[in-house]
Amino acid sequence: MKRGMVIFLKVAVVVIGIVVGSLCAFALPPLATHTAELYPEFAYLHYPVLLGLYATVIPFFFALIQAWRLLKNIEINHAFSTLSISALGRIKYCAGIIGTFYVIGMIALMTQSALHPGIAIIGLVILFSSIVIMLFTAVLQQLLNGVVQMKTENDLTI
């Protein structure tokens, strides 16, 4: 992979991290307060929903760190290594955790009759995105694992 492409992807990872971090720090709390004031009958869900959203940020940032490590492996020509396979596995598990959190959150909101259709659509988009990321990283992980095993077998026969 060209060096410029790896640098572009690293910049994208950093920008995504900054945008998500600043949204969590500066936009999410006022938005939650405004929503609680707008719908006082659901004000008791203010902090549980915030806690749930912040809980999903932890595996998201962990996955970003793993993506950064994967890009570093690609940069130093170690794309086909066990380190890359394990980074893909961690990204896959983070996507699964995020998807699970959103399913639990949407079920919890449905039981409280507080799941607005707009929130449900956003939650479903995030859920299906997590599923796609899980499937994509699982396929990449299997492909890389096969390449690494073939490389190891070739090294042993020589």
Q: Mean pLDDT score, rounded?
A: 91
Bulk shape: elongated
Task: Work out the helix count.
Answer: 4
Helix content: over 70%
> Main β-sheet: number of strands, strand sense, barrel status?
none
Distance between the termini: 28 Å
Q: SSE string, helix = H, strand = E?
A: HHHH
Uncertain spans:
none
The total domain count is: 1
SSE-based structural type? mainly alpha
- Report the strand count: 0
Radius of gyration: 20 Å
SS strand fraction: under 5%
What's the short story on this structure?
Keywords: Membrane, Transmembrane, Transmembrane helix. The protein has 158 residues and is mostly helical.
Provide structural commentary.
This is Membrane protein. With 158 residues, the protein is an all-alpha fold. It has one domain. It is built from 4 helices and no strands. Helix 2 packs antiparallel against helix 3. The radius of gyration is 20 Å and the shape is elongated.
